[in-house]
Amino acid sequence: MFELPAELVRSGKVSIEAKRGTEIVARRSIYFSDDSLPTGFEPLWCDRFGRCVEDNEAPEAVVCGSSVRDAAPAFTAFFVPGLHATGRVILLGAKPGQIVSLPTESLPTDWEPIWAVPIRRRGTALFCGTSISRAEPDGTEVGDELRVERWAEVLWRWRHRITPPHHRTLSRLWARYQRRAKEL
User: Fold this and answer.
1) Residue whose C-alpha is closest to residue 66's, from 47, 49, 41, 48
2) Do residues 27 and 15 make contact, with C-beta atoms less than 8 angstroms apart?
3) List of residues 6+ apart from 50 with CB closer than 8 A
4) Minimal CB count within 10 Å: which of 1, 7, 45, 136?
């Protein structure tokens, strides 16, 4: 999940590209409008290129517009593509002791996962927090001593088994988590 930068929060078209290296693997556009709509508004149906289609039953009618009249409700679903197909996934929160092992444990309800680590013999650290700026490791410990030890074990003792993120900012954040775990 990503936040839109403040400079993009405006009416109009926002284009999004997903890249693997220099190769563009997907493109999408989102259209935002500040215009108010009449109460009897019928949603617009569009084709995959954003052109309006009169008949919503037509095979090319693939996108339906929506209107938001109030603040959007909180979205709390946790989703990182491909995690469930990998087998064991360890979720880590910002505080020592915030650790869950999927699929044997359930998703946390009282804390936000910051890292997802799909692991077999080796693993990869994937950032899954909602904001990098609010993802710094916390100094306070949470939960029982066993969970704090597991948190430190994954971050520090398994550091040679887990590949850090490739993105420089995320790699530095992962290193700060490892340093925090070393201190325990």
Assistant:
1) 41
2) yes
3) 29, 31, 63
4) 7
Structure tokens at 176: 């700060």
Contact call for residues 137 and 94 (beta carbons, < 8 A): yes
Write out pLDDT tens, residues 136-169. 998 887 768 999 999 999 999 999 999 999 888 9
d(CA 31, CA 144): 47
- Is residue 13 within 8 Å of 29, Cβ to Cβ? yes
**Pairwise CA distance, residues 28 & 5, whole Å:** 17
Q: What value does the CA radius of gyration of the chain take, rounded to a whole number of Å?
A: 21
pLDDT in tens, 104-142: 888 888 898 999 998 888 888 999 888 888 899 988 877
